Amino acid sequence: MLRSRKCHRLAMCVDLVPDDYVVLGKELADAAGNAIRPYFRRVGGVSTDFKSDQSPVTVADKGAEDAMRTILKNKAPDDHVVGEEFGTSESSTGSDYTWVLDPIDGTKAFITGKPTFGTLIGLMNGPKTVLGIIDQPISGERWIGVHGRGSTLNGKPVKIPEDVPTKLSAANLHATTPEMFTGIERMAFEELQAACKYTNFGSDCYAYALLAMGHVHIICEADMKPWDYTALVPVIEEAGGVITDWRGEQLGLESDGTVLAAVSADLHRQALELLQYSPRGLLLLREREERAGSGDDLNDINDELPSDLPTAVGASSMTGFGTAMQTSGSLSVKVEIRTINSRHFDLSVKSPRYLAAHEREISAHLRQELLRGKVMVTIEVKDSEMLVLPIRVDADAVRAAKHLIEDVVKASELDVTPTLDQILRFSEVFVKKENGNVDDGVYTLVEKVVRAAVNDLKLSRRREGYALQLDLLRRSKAILEICEEIELRLPDIVEREKANARNLAAELSENISIAKDVNLSSVSEQLMGGRVDVSEELVRLKSHISVFELSFFSTKQIGQKLNFLVQEMNREVSTISSKASDAAVSQLCVMIKEQIERIREQVQNIV
């Protein structure tokens, strides 16, 4: 039996993973594999039941977990155990260690004879996962990650190579199934899916093992349980990858079930921007509305702006300022970019004349990144050694000038030595510098600083756009609430008009001759009731608002789209006001138009 191990302060604990626990983890994997293999591709299939969530469970699942629990009961009785099939077994001794077991991750693959499933064994020391094992009992592949000791595949070190993609557009994306995403999570995943090169579904835990080797670049999943992800953490982190939840936080037993893994921190950050901030505007708005009763000021938007707000998703203002400065050797480059509203992309660049040849490249980059607005760029280049002057010394001309002066001295029979001042009087010693290495070096630095200034500007525009976004979402929510008031009044309005129609029909019937087979009262009632029924207009208005709100989840420019939707909303409200023929509804429509006008003004400043 292993000794009971406690570590009250994780940060001070030197031995997070005792060697005998690593050996024990391997023993658990061996036992699970022995229980699983006899049932793999078994003739006649394997007995399968279904849990309450309709996920399948086989006799192999239960047998493998039971085998692992038996070993733990004998060799680590003081430790806690969390398993997929038999729940949680808590120790009364207060051990800091918790084993998290998934006997078969990918039961559907196991049932259908595909060896992409695996046994997952995780060991937590307090809140941190310090040992992870991904075991594929059919192929004999076993990945082990131990905190501080690296990851291995069958005993050989595993490390993610350096030549992995650096951009989402070049990366592959994996997930077990699209069915695990619902609601806002699904919309956020679809944004990430659109940004990546291609998407593969399936492979379960095997995909995470492949990510630890650099073959898979990004894995994004939701609706996960602790036993689904705990063992994956050390394997990926010790191989050089990054794995967190969609908020960028450490995975643990209390995590929300979202998982994002990537082969590099940079790729993880890009994916996290799409996932974390796509729905943030709506969610933050809802949270703030819920806190309204506690006295929070809903108009104090800027107090809630994240300091690390990314630029990839959501509304961006056309107004902003960005600056960057960098020094390389004797060169110093400073770039300032200011933007204001404009329907189109309007660029003006103030830079040294010798950069004129590169102005088209600078313009193309700015147009691609900033899309719309009046853009004013100032580029300053200083060189302490004056190497950036657009001229160079012609050494041959200098020598020729010196010889010429010597010939003049010789011919004049004067005892004079040529001086530098005399040589410099020959304009030929200086020639216009061609596009050479110095200019290329200057532009390389300028290009780098321009890109940094653009990123700073985009963050500035995004922060202001984020404030606009929250205000616009608050106003769209107010419009929806007014629509609900109109809907509550609608039945009374329709019934009132029908009653008027019946009364009018009765008067007409008394004064004019009507065919016996014509029910004038019924016809009038239908006509008048339909005339004031604005249900269709309300449906269209709410549909426009829904599209309006979802537009903030996009990675593309949305200003023109929002402007069009505002026009459509205004048109529907005008129809409702004139069609309903009700003073109260007209007043409510005026309130909606006030909100729409505020929205229209704000939208003009969105890229």
TrEMBL record:
The Endoribonuclease YicC-like C-terminal domain, residue ranges: 490-606
Gene Ontology terms: biological process: L-histidine biosynthetic process
GO MF assignments: histidinol-phosphatase activity; metal ion binding; RNA endonuclease activity
CDD domains linked to this entry: Bacterial_IMPase_like_1
Involved pathway(s): Amino-acid biosynthesis; L-histidine biosynthesis; L-histidine from 5-phospho-alpha-D-ribose 1-diphosphate: step 8/9
Catalytic reaction(s) noted: L-histidinol phosphate + H2O = L-histidinol + phosphate
E.C. number: 3.1.3.15
Keyword Calcium set for record: no
Residues annotated to bind Mg(2+): 84, 102, 104-105, 228
Domain Endoribonuclease YicC-like N-terminal span(s) in chain numbering: 316-469
Taxonomy, superkingdom: Eukaryota
Gene3D superfamilies: 3.40.190.80, Fructose-1,6-Bisphosphatase, subunit A, domain 1
Keyword annotations from UniProtKB, A to Z: Amino-acid biosynthesis, Endonuclease, Histidine biosynthesis, Hydrolase, Magnesium, Metal-binding, Nuclease
Lineage of producing organism: Eukaryota, Rhodophyta, Stylonematophyceae, Stylonematales, Stylonemataceae
Family: Belongs to the inositol monophosphatase superfamily. Belongs to the YicC/YloC family.
Required cofactor names: Mg(2+); a divalent metal cation
Family annotation (NCBIfam families): his_9_HisN (TIGR02067)
Record-given protein name: histidinol-phosphatase
